[in-house]
């Protein structure tokens, strides 16, 4: 009886030690997350819903009403959403095409395309933006090449909405290519061959066999790209127009140049809510797809 | 129905299939039998259009389909890994080929139900492939092919991933279906027992070449090459020397029409007979009792191992000394059948 009790106690102690080790391992990153992200974010959210009037501080959505009443802020938000959606859709379409080629292509060209598709991953955004400006900007290499072959009237995308769009697509490609290539690797050759054998052509195989089997990878890639672009700063700051602005640039200017930190906080919370909505949609789609 | 002429395929320096000719008649089940890497799956894939041939032609029902892609050929293939689409229900998997052919929905529903019924899976339509056992998944793969009514059904080691009992059960079912529906089937396997059981004819392949095509019994009784002799059924193969019209088989000189030189002699285990006197002295090493027969491993004085099969009531305990004589010997020279010897008592005594 005593021996059995002793064994049970030893087992409980071992389990407790294991649990404690697990918590200890995650304690540091969790503390960093709390102190540097969650706490300031919570404080910012609280501050945006507290208005100090003659009767003292009170809860209010006045800051948000002001944000959505401001046509300039509204335009920036809509521009950011459209720019992000268009860039994300384009990135995913190109990444999917590249991933399909990498999965089913053969020969040396596959390795070259793979290396080229991943190359932007190792180029910092500021370098990429500067290179694109030199290439696409007025009197840049692209214009010179066009003029060399007799094509004039080049309208540079630099400082237009097309500028950051090109930057986002170039900079955003590697990650979804990696995710989709990994997803496509799960689709067996026999699954494709069976469809071909039963009479299916390329389009039907892509639509009915490949695409449904990489839905999860596509959702992961979509959310990663969307969140990355929506919260970006360097590329829209370097290549985009002065107005409208992407939310990141708008926030920075409001905080730094206009010295209105509380308005910048409201813009940050609105941006956070957009990203949270995308995250919730992503989780729901993943759960639905799993079912 | 299926006519293959001079079909060849190389992978770099390796010849996978070498100028192969094969005919499969309507309603016939032909097995391509051979060891791994002999080119049988490559041959099947070239018939399906999933691999391009370097030379030769494939004709199905009189139509040359050599240049046609897989999706235009009147064939359907059952893969070793069943290759079901895991995101589709069983019914949608089976209906896929019919949807590709743009059949009316009601017709698709009727034919899918009939196909699932045919393979004993009526009522399984709404399940996902992940909810099926290995045998059920392979039946769905079969139904998916049968439903499009192919002129030739191709099966690439369809049961090799299943356990022995299920494999035996499924090949009986396939054979019964083939007879009932008059299906033309080209079936790839490396399992000689499977081939012997299921095939109307067997085409034995090795090193990219067809070694012999014939009925299962024919291949066993008259193996035309040394490879077929060793691959189909058990055969005691050993090198012998031929000199002055006699082949020296374990000290017994047997008359042959072969010219002097080396050869390989083959004796089936059931063609080794235990005798009271004369013959070759051997010692029993191991006995496997199958109930209806016993398979005995023997060792001759020079260390040669022989397998003997008997239904007789001899004392065959390990270590026992016996004398055996061959009832029938086949001789191969340069891998090809060169002579068949049926020695009589005088030959053995000599």
The share of residues in extended strands of chain A comes to under 5%
Structural class of chain A: mainly alpha
Question: How many domains is the backbone of chain A divided into?
Answer: 1
Order of helices and strands of chain B: EEEHEEEHHHEHEHEEHHEEEEEEEEEEEH
The overall pLDDT average of chain B reads 87
Residues in helix, % of chain B: 25-40%
Distance between the termini of chain A: 48 Å
Distance between the termini of chain B: 53 Å
Question: What does this 3D model show about the protein?
Answer:
The complex is a heterodimer of chains A (291) and B (350). The mean pLDDT of chain A is 90. By secondary structure, chain A is mainly α. Chain A contains 14 helices and 2 strands; from the N terminus they run H-E-E-H-H-H-H-H-H-H-H-H-H-H-H-H. Chain A is flat. In chain A, a hairpin with a 2-residue loop joins strand 1 (50-53) and strand 2. Chain A has a two-stranded antiparallel sheet with strand order 1-2. Chain A has helices at residues 2-48, 62-69, 71-104, 108-118, 125-136, 141-148, 162-172, 174-185, 189-197, 202-213, 215-230, 234-239, 247-256, 261-290, and strands spanning 50-53, 56-59. Chain B has helices at 40-48, 90-100, 105-118, 134-146, 164-181, 192-198, 216-221, 226-231, 345-349, and strands at 2-11, 14-24, 29-33, 55-60, 63-64, 75-78, 152-156, 185-189, 201-206, 209-214, 236-243, 246-249, 252-255, 261-267, 272-275, 280-289, 294-300, 305-310, 321-326, 329-333, 336-341. Chain B has a 6-stranded mixed beta sheet, sandwiched between helices. A 6-stranded antiparallel beta sheet of chain B has the order 13-12-11-14-20-21. In chain B, strand 1 (2-11) and strand 2 form a beta hairpin. The chains are: A mainly alpha (291), B alpha+beta (350). Chain A binds chain B through residues 188, 190-191, 193-201, 204, 208-209, 212-213, and chain B through 48-50, 69-72, 75-77, 79-81, 83-88, 96-97, 100-101, 141, 144-145, 148.
